[in-house]
């Protein structure tokens, strides 16, 4: 039997390949035939299947925020609740073009979105520790420890103690000015020259996106509670705005916020310090989360915040969802009932407000300062009108920058002129005292100049320029 099989294949070989040359030609033809057949199977027979798998090669998990619970009084009257609104967001899909190719970059797209959102009458969500004044100057919103915490966030530190010398700044990070921080961020993100106002807005958006560590598909809010006009613009240009979308998000709202602010508190975007602490025990926390900052919102945050859901989806190379493969619905936060009576609290607040306002008004006197005598009682205390002006300015109820605007009234212009004149004289006087070869002692200065010198010493100490421990007190 074996001899028969061998003989059969020998005869077949002699028929198909009568010579070695024929065998080589046969092998050379066989391999291309196999290759062509394989290509036919891949591209024709299973082509659609493989193309679908390629399009859906990106799997991502998107968190679904839980609705925050309500806060109610003892009778069930709502004091804090959520209201749905349209929010413009952007996700870093990592597919933006480069400017060297003369195509739109991430910065250019942000510029275009912000410009059109503002043209539609809406404001961007510029929740940032630095503001750009109407005079075109940058200033911090915080002071003291809060300011140092903000600086630490900017430079990517978990604690204030990590702040140190920065080569790019050429100085200690703990002493960086608002102007220097903006310039630092502009250079870090390579933001083009769009003009000071637009540069500031683009930098704020880039920083907010940076807080997500540029994880793909994590959305960053550009504008909240936008109008239908803005929604229409985004939807009409959706194909050209990479990663930009309009989402329905909850906005926290409060009933009679003045009367209940001290009790309920408020919410805000989680800080880097809060994020680091929360992420130790919760792997679902993100840097875009809204958490309670003070009051009941903070104390009962765990109850109010609920539990996030998520959905796993397949997306194309620009992040557009194609197919949902798994979904878990979020669990809404629980309601919190307080022991207070809302109507009683509101009425009490209004009465106290009127009473305090009446007392303050009756105590205001038209004088610069007030120093109580040795035998003065509480009933003798008065409020100098200058202190009232200082309070109004320091609490941003009066913006002195507006006194120089085009629409300023004659009174505002006159006040500004008097202010600038007085400021110039004060600076000249301080400069003369500091540079004098025979300066007066502190106790010999006027009350006003004592205040100036005290301010300077405090500022120098806070910036670690004046080291009290190194001063020779016996000299």
Tag the structure with descriptive keywords.
475 residues; five-stranded mixed sheet; single chain; 16 strands; alpha+beta; 16 helices
SSE blueprint:
Layout: H1 2-16, H2 20-45, H3 47-55, E1 58-64, E2 71-72, E3 78-91, H4 106-119, E4 130-132, E5 138-140, H5 144-154, E6 165-166, E7 171-172, H6 178-189, H7 196-210, E8 219-223, H8 228-236, E9 244-254, H9 257-264, E10 266-269, H10 272-278, E11 290-294, H11 295-299, H12 301-305, E12 309-315, E13 321-328, E14 336-337, H13 342-363, E15 364-365, E16 383-384, H14 385-394, H15 410-435, H16 447-462
Parallel strand pairs: 2-14, 15-16
Antiparallel strand pairs: 1-12, 2-3, 3-8, 3-9, 4-5, 6-7, 10-11, 12-13
Helix pairs in contact: 4-7, 6-7
Query: Over all CA atoms, what is the radius of gyration?
Result: 34 Å
What proportion of the residues is helical, as a percent range?
40-55%
Biggest sheet details: 5 strands, mixed
The global form is elongated
How much strand? 15-25%
Q: Give the beta-strand count.
A: 16
Q: Average pLDDT across residues?
A: 82
| Straight-line N-to-C gap | 122 Å
Q: Number of DSSP helices?
A: 16
Low-confidence stretches: 99-103
Which class do the helix and strand fractions yield?
alpha+beta
Protein described:
The strands form six sheets. Strands 2, 3, 8, 9 and 14 form a five-stranded mixed sheet that branches. Strand 4 and strand 5 form a beta hairpin. With 475 residues, the chain is of the alpha+beta class. Helix content is 44%, strand content 17%. The chain contains 16 helices and 16 strands. Helix 6 (178-189) crosses helix 7.
């Amino acid at each position: 039997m074996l001899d028969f099989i061998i003989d059969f294949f020998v005869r077949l070989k002699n028929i198909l390949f009568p010579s070695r040359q024929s065998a080589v030609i046969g092998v050379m033809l066989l391999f291309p035939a196999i290759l062509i057949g394989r290509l036919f199977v891949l591209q024709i027979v299973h082509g659609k299947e493989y193309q679908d798998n390629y399009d859906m090669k990106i799997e991502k998990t998107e968190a679904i925020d839980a609705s925050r619970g309500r806060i109610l009084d003892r009778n069930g009257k709502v004091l804090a609740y959520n209201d749905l609104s349209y929010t413009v967001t952007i996700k870093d899909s990592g597919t933006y073009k480069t400017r060297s190719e003369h195509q739109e970059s991430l910065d250019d797209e942000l510029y275009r979105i912000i410009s059109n959102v503002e043209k539609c009458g809406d404001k961007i969500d510029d929740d940032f520790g630095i503001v750009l004044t109407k005079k075109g100057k940058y200033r911090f919103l915080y002071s003291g420890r809060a300011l140092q915490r903000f600086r630490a966030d900017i430079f990517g530190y978990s604690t204030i103690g990590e702040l140190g010398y920065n080569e790019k700044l050429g100085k200690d990070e703990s002493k960086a000015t608002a102007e220097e921080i903006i310039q630092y961020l502009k250079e870090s993100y390579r933001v083009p020259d769009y003009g000071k106002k637009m540069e500031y807005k683009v930098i704020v958006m880039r920083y907010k996106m940076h807080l997500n560590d540029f994880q793909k598909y994590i959305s960053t809010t550009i504008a909240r509670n936008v109008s239908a006009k803005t929604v229409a613009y985004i939807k009409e240009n959706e194909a050209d705005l990479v990663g930009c979308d309009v989402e329905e998000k909850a906005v926290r709202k409060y009933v009679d916020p003045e009367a209940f602010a001290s009790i309920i508190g408020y919410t805000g975007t989680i800080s880097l310090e809060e994020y680091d602490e929360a992420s130790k025990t919760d792997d679902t926390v993100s840097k875009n989360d809204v958490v309670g900052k003070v009051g009941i919102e903070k104390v009962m945050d765990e109850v109010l915040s609920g539990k996030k859901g998520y959905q796993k989806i397949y997306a194309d190379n620009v992040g557009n969802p194609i197919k949902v493969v798994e979904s878990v619905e979020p669990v809404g936060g629980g309601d919190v009932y307080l022991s207070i009576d809302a109507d009683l609290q509101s009425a009490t607040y209004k009465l106290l407000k009127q009473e305090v306002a009446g007392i303050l008004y009756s105590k205001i006197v038209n004088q610069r300062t007030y120093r109580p005598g040795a035998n003065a009682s509480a009933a003798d205390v008065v409020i100098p009108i200058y202190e009232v002006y200082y309070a109004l300015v320091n609490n941003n109820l009066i913006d002195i920058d507006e006194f120089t605007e085009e629409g300023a009234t004659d009174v505002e212009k006159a006040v500004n002129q008097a202010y600038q004149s007085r400021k110039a004289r004060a600076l000249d006087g301080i400069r003369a005292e500091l540079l004098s070869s025979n300066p007066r002692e502190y106790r010999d200065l006027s009350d006003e100049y004592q205040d100036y010198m005290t301010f300077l010493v405090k500022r120098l100490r806070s910036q670690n320029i004046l080291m009290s421990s190194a001063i020779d007190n016996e000299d």
